[in-house]
């Protein structure tokens, strides 16, 4: 819900009603409804802060600025409502980072760029309100343009089933044709002469009779076509979906979110996943940065050791440092190493300088609504974490003006004069501030990437540098994001001179950037090393373990993130996807198609020198009527583990038609693939590429709007729920709160679902084919007259009652080994990926098994009943007794078969199997009783059959014999297979029987790894330095004083505020579906 | 790796969580029941050498004696069969089989002599057997009206359409209607014993040959104890029959629809070659065998035509045992299956010894 201001006043409107040209008011923490042209905002300089994590996964706040001419309107409805301008812009497209257009207002033309546009999917942050003009709405928004098509998802088993049903139809028609031909032969040879006893109906001759016989057999044999199959399949899927919903081990107590199967038709595909595409922010990580460790003057802080000197793992239960001495401390901050606080409070100069630097060198904006309640608005979470750390250790950044920074240093207020901010950018990889202390000392404080700072250090700190490098390597090995801190005392005269030149450079018309860079370069040298910080981009719980498990299950995980390369790599290391031991990590970063091609080829050559230039492509056909062409690029063998990191702009080239196979081959050779800076659409394209050329089942997991397209594109989409924003969850098939539940979803639920579905299908086809083929054999003895073997009631009730429940019981409860063993042996997952349990081959095996069983089921009773009489001499070789015998044999055999197939015998299964048999006998005796015959004489002609024949010992001996003959070969065959070629399941099952589950290994503190790579990662962007030093920023501030605004927003309008986000999300969905 | 507080144990489902505001306040946490958590207690059998091999041997050991018992029992049953179709020129019934007409007034009779090599103790059952007669043809099987046969007066007048083309004759309903009834076996078989050149008729019992349920429940005459002739007034006899249904026997308890020959015929056979019980030769006293060794003649009133469809007619004399008539199949099958089981058991044992241990000790590669 939001406020739309036409005509002339604000009113609350649903998202679906927003139209192009509307003016919309947004408030803090609201989602942006449509692509808006920013008109005005509550903040100084008409700035608006937005979080784009939903769009590109980046966690830092971004700034948008309205045109001054529109910004002047402020929140004055009277001027906004009649606002009359003309916007000309590009047509709707999916480029998130580009916007071009013009605004014509009173004859004046203003240029519009991406900075003035709020995209749908962003969240407004730290901004009281803003007004925007809708440029693109609904499906035209850039987010929706990126979201890809919604396709109807079906599992591969569904497709296979369709093909099989078609084949079965063909089989049925050929059986019936055979019957028709045989019938015409019989009619001409035998039937012709038998007319004395069995006259033909008028006008029916042999050819017509064979035609009729064709259709009669279509009716008799139609049970091969599994009509009830689809119903049962859906019931089983529904059951398995409920088990996912009910699973307590996928329930996240902190946000009270259970897992949810939003689609009930894709379960078994969860057991066949080969590729996982994961988002980073919010999926692998918690989106929380914590100041974890630091190295100050060569001493490392932040780790705990026990008495014997071993590292102690830090858990939630570890005692936290008490910061209560600091009345300005942030209570949410936690740190575990007491020695650092003591060091700082003792007055260690280096430690104090370290935190002073952290309190001064940044672009954070403070907000102090109440005395002592500080709130930082950091542009990047890294920076927020560092400034908060300084705050808690007694160096509280209190407030800033463009010229001063006020810091409370150990309860003493100190005001520094801010002389210059040497802003951060991706090339410099560092930022500095120059400040003058109250004592008049001039100092330059600098923080940045280790590689960059080390080049600019004074030679005197070489020794310290070596020690710090050691610490940095440890931090990098732990996957922490590091920054190196350094300072330099400046000379007053030199500073005076530098400042002058800086001013000149600032106002220079040309080469401004270069001249500034030179100046920065000049002053940032001969630095004194202070130490290093290590910030943890907090992974979600259990992410590395989950990834390890999934890797053991032979599932490939690709990370697709909109974030920067360094951050993505860093996460790769911290969640164990990239490892130091890897033989090589290739980074594809080129900006031209040729460059990308070369880099990919080089990578491939390095991994596999003798791989052919042209990819080995297997083309085949599949699908209904074999109309689909499929292309398969087989995996190529590589020795050793490699990683691939590819950048968004390179990926754009690599996804072109001529390079995509090259990309796929190279990427599939690598253990780990990380794509960074990718747009939502590219994510989907990557997924589609793998889908198309690997014929493998893919899963995409993500939490934000930028993941929607990939979630829709993959076979299975998983949304991380329980966080802000429901876009991903709404388009997902399964959702849960934590990434680690993925292993349970796949390795337990997915595997079981697949196993159950396949067993179900195999058994279902078996039982129906066996049932039907007996009719086929009987045809040879009844003149192909379409006489059924069984009582018609049995035919009706066979699928409906007698065999319905045991098979459902198996399809819902069966498990080969329990969940703990599934986790213990993730390899159990691989049969699903290879499609081993149910395929065309398995189906053919199934049909052959049915043929055998049906032969036994017909010919054993046939032979046993020939010329047989009862023990009182009356004959029981009649049709009704034979039918009863055959159907009883059949039912016993299919029930024994399900006993052989069931691995997990719960009471329910027992009840179903025995219950079905009992029901059969009960129903049979009832239907063949005198009472039923008296009531419905012509419906129950089998009166007395059960009594008369089932009392005979040779009937039971026959039933016993058929059951055994059908069962024994199966048992023997399976036993031989287990002995000769045991599958992984057999091995685990026999181990499971003999041994108790090995106790979970006590989690040792992870092994210390030393990395020589740079752990630098800083999600920061340029431009904030200018902002905080802007003079206008100072001027505008008093004009739009906050208290007035607060009064305004707390007025009538505020009462209409939406209570919670849920309504918004639901409306969002409506917008999705709406025109 | 990072120091993470994640511990797999926490996910075991028994951490107590208090919802917002303490207590289990409308938490969405799924219930901890064995069913919902898929932890139902279960028996998980697997095929191990310890269960499969003994099973095979035990089945073998059980089946072979059963098979031998069945086989011996079946072999002890005495059975005598004689084909009286009259295909051969030399056959006494050759003439009768040649000139055939359903409605010939003069019955053709033939006499077939035979010699019983063994004497038959206990009750002897006399069957007639037909071959190549498709009593199980779909159109044949359904060509009857059970309501009519159950004595329904309405169905007597208006037979079911299933009976077509034997539902009406000369605009009168046929009783009993349908092709089954119409084609009823109507040869008359009589047996004579010839001790020392004399001719002694063997007493044949015509009742007690149908199932109790058929005789007393399924088949009933229309009208309560009325004169059958009156009841069937206005109906026509089946086309091929010589006598109407109410003249099948003199005994009122064996006449009309409840005539046992008729009931036996109406219980259609499952296969095109079948035998049906015709008469019982009851044992008279314990000293004399029911049928002594010696010369016999079978006198056939040859009515039922089978030559046209190359059918055969047989007369069978048989004794019975606890497992019914002579059928060596079950015995042989049990012996075979038992032996195969035993043999398979040995083979599986060998396979298990040679390969099984190797595979079981092999650890699962991680």
UniProtKB/TrEMBL annotation, chain A:
Keywords: ATP-binding, Magnesium, Membrane, Metal-binding, Nucleotide-binding, Translocase, Transmembrane, Transmembrane helix. It comes from Solea senegalensis. The active site is at 279 (4-aspartylphosphate intermediate). It catalyses: ATP + H2O + phospholipidSide 1 = ADP + phosphate + phospholipidSide 2. The keyword Heme does not apply. Mg(2+) binds at residues 279, 281, 703, 707. This is Phospholipid-transporting ATPase. Belongs to the cation transport ATPase (P-type) (TC 3.A.3) family. Type IV subfamily. It comes from the Eukaryota. The chain crosses the membrane at residues 163-186, 214-233, 760-781, 793-813, 842-862, 882-900, 912-936, 956-977. GO terms for molecular function: ATP binding; ATP hydrolysis activity; ATPase-coupled intramembrane lipid transporter activity; magnesium ion binding. Its cofactor is Mg(2+). It is a multi-pass membrane protein. Its EC number is 7.6.2.1. The keyword Magnesium applies. ATP binds at residues 279-281, 383, 424, 447, 481, 561-563, 677, 683, 706-707. PANTHER family: PHOSPHOLIPID-TRANSPORTING ATPASE, PROBABLE PHOSPHOLIPID-TRANSPORTING ATPASE. It is an enzyme of class 7 (translocase). One of its GO terms (cellular component) is plasma membrane. Residues 729-983 form the P-type ATPase C-terminal domain. InterPro entries: ATPase_P-typ_P_site, P-type_ATPase_IV, P_typ_ATPase, P_typ_ATPase_c, P_typ_ATPase_HD_dom. GO terms for biological process: Golgi organization; phospholipid translocation. It is found in: Membrane.
From TrEMBL, chain B:
It comes from the Eukaryota. Signal peptide: none annotated. One of its GO terms (biological process) is phospholipid translocation. It is found in: Apical cell membrane; Cytoplasmic vesicle, Secretory vesicle membrane; Golgi apparatus; Membrane. One of its GO terms (cellular component) is endoplasmic reticulum. Residues 1-28 are annotated as: Disordered. It is a multi-pass membrane protein. InterPro entries: CDC50/LEM3_fam. Keywords: Cell membrane, Cytoplasmic vesicle, Disulfide bond, Glycoprotein, Golgi apparatus, Lipid transport, Membrane, Transmembrane, Transmembrane helix, Transport. Coiled coil: none annotated. The chain crosses the membrane at residues 46-72, 329-351. Belongs to the CDC50/LEM3 family. This is Cell cycle control protein. The lineage of its organism: Eukaryota, Metazoa, Chordata, Craniata, Vertebrata.
């Amino acid at each position: 819900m939001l406020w739309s201001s036409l005509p002339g006043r604000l009113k609350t409107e649903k998202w679906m009603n927003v139209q192009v040209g509307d003016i919309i008011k947004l408030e803090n923490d609201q989602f942006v409804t449509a692509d808006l042209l920013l008109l005005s905002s509550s903040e100084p300089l008409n700035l608006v802060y937005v979080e784009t994590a939903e769009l590109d996964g980046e966690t830092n706040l971004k700034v948008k600025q309205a045109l001054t001419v529109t910004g002047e309107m402020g929140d004055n409805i009277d001027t906004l409502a009649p606002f009359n301008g003309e916007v000309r812009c590009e047509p709707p497209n999916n480029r998130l980072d580009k916007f071009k257009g013009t605004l014509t207002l009173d004859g004046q033309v203003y240029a519009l760029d991406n900075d003035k546009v709020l995209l749908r999917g962003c969240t407004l942050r730290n901004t009281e309100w803003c007004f925007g003009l809708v440029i693109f709405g609904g499906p035209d928004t850039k987010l929706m343009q990126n979201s890809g098509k919604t396709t109807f998802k079906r599992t591969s088993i569904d497709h296979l089933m369709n093909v099989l049903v078609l084949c079965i139809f063909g089989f049925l028609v050929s059986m019936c044709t055979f019957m028709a031909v045989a019938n015409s032969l019989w009619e001409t040879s035998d039937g012709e002469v038998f007319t004395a006893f069995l006259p033909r109906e008028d006008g029916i001759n042999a050819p017509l009779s064979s035609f009729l016989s064709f259709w009669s057999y279509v009716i008799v044999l139609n049970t091969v076509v599994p009509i009830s199959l689809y119903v049962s399949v859906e019931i089983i899927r529904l059951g398995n979906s409920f088990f996912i919903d009910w699973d307590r081990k996928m329930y996240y107590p902190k946000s009270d979110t259970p897992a949810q199967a939003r689609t009930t038709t894709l379960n078994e595909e969860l057991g066949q996943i080969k590729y996982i595409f994961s988002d980073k922010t919010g999926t692998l990580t918690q989106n929380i940065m914590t100041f974890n460790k630091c190295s100050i003057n060569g001493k490392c802080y932040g780790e705990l050791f026990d008495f014997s000197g071993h590292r102690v793992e830090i858990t939630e239960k570890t005692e936290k440092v008490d910061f209560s001495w600091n009345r300005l401390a942030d209570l949410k901050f936690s740190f575990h190493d007491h020695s650092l606080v003591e060091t700082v409070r003792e007055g260690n100069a280096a430690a104090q300088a370290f935190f002073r630097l952290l309190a001064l060198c940044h672009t954070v904006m403070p907000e102090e609504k109440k005395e002592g309640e500080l709130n930082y608005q950091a542009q990047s979470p890294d920076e927020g974490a560092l400034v908060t750390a300084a705050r808690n250790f007694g160096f509280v950044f209190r407030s800033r003006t463009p010229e001063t920074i006020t810091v409370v240093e150990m309860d003493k207020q100190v005001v520094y004069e801010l002389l210059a901010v040497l802003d951060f950018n991706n090339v410099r990889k560092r930022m500095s501030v120059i400040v003058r202390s109250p004592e008049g000392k001039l100092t330059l404080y600098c923080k940045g990437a280790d590689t960059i700072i080390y080049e600019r250090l004074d030679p005197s700190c070489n020794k310290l540098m070596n020690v710090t490098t050691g610490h940095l390597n440890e931090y990098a090995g732990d996957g922490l994001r590091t920054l190196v801190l350094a300072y330099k005392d400046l000379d007053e005269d030199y500073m005076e001179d530098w400042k002058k030149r800086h001013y000149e450079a600032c106002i220079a018309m040309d080469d401004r950037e270069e001249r500034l860079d030179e100046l920065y370069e000049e002053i940032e040298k001969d630095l004194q090393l202070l130490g290093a910080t290590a910030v943890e981009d907090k992974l979600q719980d259990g992410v590395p373990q989950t990834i390890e498990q999934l890797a053991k299950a032979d599932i490939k995980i690709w990370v697709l993130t909109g974030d920067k390369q360094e951050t993505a790599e860093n996460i790769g290391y911290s969640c164990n996807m990239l490892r130091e031991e890897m033989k090589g990590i290739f980074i594809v970063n080129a900006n031209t198609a040729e460059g990308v091609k070369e880099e990919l080829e080089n990578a491939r050559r390095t991994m596999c020198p003798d791989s052919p230039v042209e990819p080995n492509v297997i083309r085949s056909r599949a699908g209904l009527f074999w109309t689909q062409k499929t292309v398969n690029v087989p995996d190529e063998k590589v020795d050793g583990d490699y990683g691939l990191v590819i950048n968004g702009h390179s990926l754009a080239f690599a996804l072109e038609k001529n390079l995509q196979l090259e990309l796929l081959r190279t990427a599939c050779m690598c253990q780990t693939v990380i794509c960074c800076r990718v747009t939502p659409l590219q994510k989907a394209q990557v997924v589609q590429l793998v889908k198309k050329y690997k014929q493998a089942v893919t899963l995409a997991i993500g939490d934000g709007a930028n993941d929607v397209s990939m979630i829709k594109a993959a076979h299975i989409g998983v949304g991380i729920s329980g966080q802000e924003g429901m876009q991903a969850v709404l388009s997902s098939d399964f959702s849960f709160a934590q990434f680690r539940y993925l292993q349970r979803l796949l390795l337990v639920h997915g595997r079981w679902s697949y196993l159950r579905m396949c067993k179900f299908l195999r058994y279902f086809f078996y039982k129906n084919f066996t049932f039907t083929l007996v009719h086929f054999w009987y045809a040879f003895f009844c003149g192909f007259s379409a006489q059924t073997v069984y009582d018609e009631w049995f035919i009706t009730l066979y699928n409906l009652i007698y065999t319905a429940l045991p098979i459902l019981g198996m399809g819902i409860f069966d498990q080969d080994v329990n969940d703990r063993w599934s986790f213990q042996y993730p390899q159990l997952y691989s049969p699903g990926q290879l499609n081993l349990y149910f395929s065309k081959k398995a189906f053919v095996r199934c049909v052959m098994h049915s043929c055998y069983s049906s032969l036994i089921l017909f010919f054993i009773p046939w032979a046993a009943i020939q010329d047989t009489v009862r023990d009182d001499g009356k004959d029981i070789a009649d049709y009704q007794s034979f039918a009863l015998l055959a159907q009883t044999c059949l039912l016993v055999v299919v029930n024994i078969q399900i006993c052989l197939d069931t691995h997990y015998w719960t009471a329910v299964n027992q009840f179903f199997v025995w219950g079905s048999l009992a029901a059969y006998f009960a129903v049979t005796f009832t239907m063949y009783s005198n009472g039923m015959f008296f009531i419905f004489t012509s419906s129950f002609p089998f009166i007395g059959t059960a009594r008369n024949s089932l009392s005979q010992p040779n009937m039971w001996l026959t039933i016993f014999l058929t059951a055994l003959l059908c069962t024994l070969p199966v048992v023997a065959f399976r036993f031989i297979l287990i002995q000769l070629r045991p599958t992984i399941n057999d091995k685990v099952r026999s181990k499971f029987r003999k041994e108790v589950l090995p106790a979970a290994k006590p989690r040792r503190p992870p092994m210390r790894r030393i990395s020589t790579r740079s752990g630098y990662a800083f999600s920061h962007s340029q431009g904030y330095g200018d902002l905080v030093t802007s003079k206008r920023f100072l001027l505008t501030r008093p004009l739009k004083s906050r208290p007035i605004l607060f009064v305004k927003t707390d007025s009538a309008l505020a009462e209409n505020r939406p209570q919670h986000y849920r309504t918004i999300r639901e409306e969002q969905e409506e917008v999705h579906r709406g025109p | 790796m990072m120091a993470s507080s994640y511990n797999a144990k926490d996910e075991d489902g028994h951490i107590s969580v208090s919802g917002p505001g303490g207590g289990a306040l409308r938490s969405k946490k799924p219930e901890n029941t064995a069913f919902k958590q898929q932890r139902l207690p279960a028996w998980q059998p697997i095929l191990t050498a310890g269960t499969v091999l003994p099973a095979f041997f035990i089945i073998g050991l059980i089946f072979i004696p059963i098979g031998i018992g069945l086989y011996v029992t079946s072999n002890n049953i005495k059975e005598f069969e004689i084909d009286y179709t009259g295909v051969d020129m030399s056959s006494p019934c050759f003439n009768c089989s040649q000139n055939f007409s359903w409605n010939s007034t003069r019955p053709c009779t033939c006499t077939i002599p035979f010699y019983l090599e063994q004497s038959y103790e206990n009750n002897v059952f006399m069957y007639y057997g037909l071959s190549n007669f498709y009593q199980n043809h779909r159109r044949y099987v359904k060509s009857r009206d059970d309501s009519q046969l159950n004595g329904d007066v309405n169905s007597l007048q208006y037979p079911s359409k299933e009976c077509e083309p034997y539902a009406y004759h000369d605009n009168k309903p046929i009783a009993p209607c349908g092709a089954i009834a119409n084609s009823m076996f109507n040869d008359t078989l009589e047996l004579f014993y010839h001790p020392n050149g004399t001719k002694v008729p063997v007493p044949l019992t015509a009742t007690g040959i149908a199932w109790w349920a058929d005789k007393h429940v399924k088949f009933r005459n229309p009208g309560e104890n009325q004169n059958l002739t009156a009841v069937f007034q206005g109906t026509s006899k089946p086309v091929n029959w010589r006598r109407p249904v109410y003249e099948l026997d003199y005994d009122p308890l064996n006449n009309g629809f409840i005539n046992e020959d008729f009931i036996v015929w109406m219980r259609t056979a499952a296969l095109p070659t079948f035998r049906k019980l015709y008469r019982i030769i009851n044992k008279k006293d314990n000293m004399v065998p029911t049928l002594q060794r010696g010369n016999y003649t079978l006198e056939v009133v040859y009515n039922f035509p089978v030559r046209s469809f190359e059918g055969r007619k047989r007369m069978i004399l048989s004794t019975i045992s606890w497992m019914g008539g002579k059928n060596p199949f079950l015995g042989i099958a049990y012996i075979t299956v038992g032996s195969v089981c035993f043999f398979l058991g040995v083979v599986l044992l060998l396979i298990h010894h040679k390969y099984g241990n190797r595979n079981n000790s092999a650890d699962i590669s991680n």
